[in-house]
Write a structure and sequence with these properties.
The chain is of the alpha+beta class. Helices cover about 50% and strands about 10% of the residues.
């Protein structure tokens, strides 16, 4: 079994989906959390000077959240079996990542830009509401976990977020009550983001 080390800041942010996927897969890994103040000393050791980054046994360092997630989804069977299911899972996850990216830019107010993605969020929410997100052959898809991770902070800020979307609230509950995810959520370090 490969040994992994995940590098990210001391927060949920862009790495939480990776941590959740490791938890559901039952895979042990080193969770290296960096402090913002230490970033300048470490950044040259990471591809593209960015985190999250996943280090493999052979020292290979894989950057970028979505690349890491797709790798883990293939390795630990968090995709559907058919190409169309995989594409839908990628589409949903990519849309959620864009929402999270906008929210994080707003939250940290870096880059001086906040693109309001509300219309896209509502379209995607309706698409998820109309689709069958309960892939019966699979316990948990990576897009399910991505949904939870990307909307966790906005949901904490506004508990009425899913009031008009009962299927999304049900999905949120199903993911949060998955035994391995529930166990992970109850023991992870607390952070605002």
């Amino acid at each position: 079994m490969p040994h992994y080390t995940l590098y990210y800041f001391n927060g949920r942010g862009r790495a939480e989906i990776c941590r959740m996927m490791f938890a559901v897969a039952g895979i042990a890994y080193d969770d290296r959390r960096l402090e913002f103040d230490d970033w300048e000393a470490y950044k040259n050791g990471f591809p593209g000077w960015c985190v999250p980054a996943l280090e493999m046994e052979d020292g290979y360092m894989m950057p970028e959240t979505m690349a890491i997630c797709r790798y883990l989804a293939r390795e630990y069977d968090f995709y559907g079996g058919a190409h169309l299911e995989m594409m839908r899972c990628d589409y949903i996850s990519d849309c959620l990542y864009e929402i999270m990216d906008d929210y994080m830019r707003y939250f940290h107010w870096q880059n001086g830009r906040f693109r309001n993605n509300t219309a896209g969020s509502e379209i995607m929410a309706k698409d998820i509401e109309c689709s069958d997100m309960r892939y019966p052959a699979y316990d948990m898809m990576w897009c399910d976990m991505m949904f939870y991770c990307c909307l966790e902070t906005p949901f904490m800020d506004d508990p009425a977020l899913f009031d008009n979307f009962p299927m999304l609230r049900a999905l949120w509950s199903r993911v949060g009550h998955h035994p391995r995810i529930f166990n992970y959520l109850t023991r992870r370090p607390y952070c605002d983001w």
